[in-house]
Fold:
Amino acid sequence: MQAIGIDIGGTKIAGGVVDENGVILAEERVPTDASDPQGIVDEVVAMIERLRAGHDVVAAGVAAPGFIDAQQSLVYYTPNISWRNEPLRRHLTERLDLAITIDNDANAAGWAEFRFGAGRDVSDMTVLTIGTGVGGAIVSQGRLFRGGFGAGAELGHLRVVPDGLPCGCGAHGCIEQYGSGRALLRMANEIADVGGIGLALAAARTRDGKLTGHTVGRLIAEHDPGALSALRQLGFWLGQACASLSAVLDPQIFVFGGGVAEAGELLLAPIREAYLTHLPARGYHPEPDFVIAQLVNDAGVVGAADLARVHATAR
Ligand SMILES: [Zn+2]
Structure:
């Protein structure tokens, strides 16, 4: 049973026909013009028409960044595309004779990881995506958690520091300011400023004019002590956030995705250490696994398709 998944990003729209084992049978992508919200709707319609030709699909799922309503039909808000209260499902079903569902992109990618990746053997999973910011997804008792209004699982805005650093969301002290790729760069710059273990970071900064995620990632892979120190700080904050999340959600597994998670065990070790130090009722709580995401590319496409297929066949 096949379904189409579409993942609308800030720079491209990716789409694919996906079977019930999460295998992509056909795929395409086009650049996004984020300034043209109507053009994006037109392109999604055209892409679904092209993909369904020659495939017997039961539904199409569309993943978009931002807040989606609990009925999976309305995009309240997207950060990059100027959609405000966009009735996306209606605009698509008016032009396509196909069941359509809309989901948040991080939730769709998390669902793919649950069904076909690191979470496939558990019922409860929490995903933290460590990219420029911090994204999240929650699966509880085998179901994707969306919240009562549909705006759930914004784990990046869990507060870890009272009156901490200002966040793009308007609040202060969110984990996104302490556990993201952007935070890693800030910490690496602070270590470079001090000298000592920061000498290699400082030298790279002088050579390139600034530190980039690529450079810090390379120094981490080379086990440079300054870069590793920055990564340990990041892990310290993420581990604390996981301890709080565990108290609420009790997942069997925490999955880390995004560019920073390429550090692998070097990131997971400090996360585990901080988690155990800060876990409420430590010693009486079964310890979850901390692992790296297995689906790197196209998780949004696969997850959106699978959610649409599950939704269509449940009716
Ligand atoms: Zn925030």
In short: The mean pLDDT is 94. DSSP finds ten helices and 13 strands in the chain. The first helix runs from residue 37 to 52.
